[in-house]
């Protein structure tokens, strides 16, 4: 059985008031749900502004992940002046790579990749000479 509409109202992007399964077809198209944009600031001063369906204030999240640095962002700009919180496990891709490989391993991988490029003729030796 294929359903044409979501069983949960307002969970789809672009959902409108009155959408969802109906027994009879109406010509009335639902009005857009009211939306609000909430500002969050991280400790580094980055602002993130996600859009939410208009909800009571206590149902809107108090913290949000910063889109630029991944840190915790809060709704009050005064809170953004607080020092960085204790590391909560967020790591960049580079940090994970550095955990698995030493700097010598990285040099070996780079040297091997450069040799393969030179062997294929894609990298000229003159470009890599030390000056």
N/C terminus separation: 70 Å
Q: Indicate the structural class.
A: alpha+beta
Unreliable stretches covering 5 or more consecutive residues: 5-11, 78-83
Give the ordered list of helices and strands.
EEEEEEHH
Provide the CATH architecture of the domain at 34-80. Answer: Single Sheet
Give, in spatial order, the strands making up the sheet with the most strands.
Answer: 3-2-6-5
Please give the share of residues in helix: 10-25%
Give a summary of the structure in a few sentences.
With 131 residues, this protein is an alpha+beta fold. It is built from two helices and six strands.
Provide an overview of this structure.
The chain is built from 2 helices and 6 strands. The chain has 131 residues and is α+β, with helices and mostly antiparallel strands. A hairpin with a 4-residue loop joins strand 2 and strand 3. Among the domains are: 34-80, Rubrerythrin, domain 2 (Single Sheet); 91-121. Mean pLDDT is 74; it is low at 5-11 and 78-83.
Detail the topology: elements first, then pairings.
Layout: E1 35-37, E2 40-42, E3 47-48, E4 51-53, E5 63-65, E6 72-74, H1 93-100, H2 103-120
Antiparallel strand pairs: 1-4, 2-3, 2-6, 5-6
Primary descriptors:
alpha+beta, two-stranded antiparallel ribbon, 131 residues, four-stranded antiparallel sheet, Rubrerythrin, domain 2
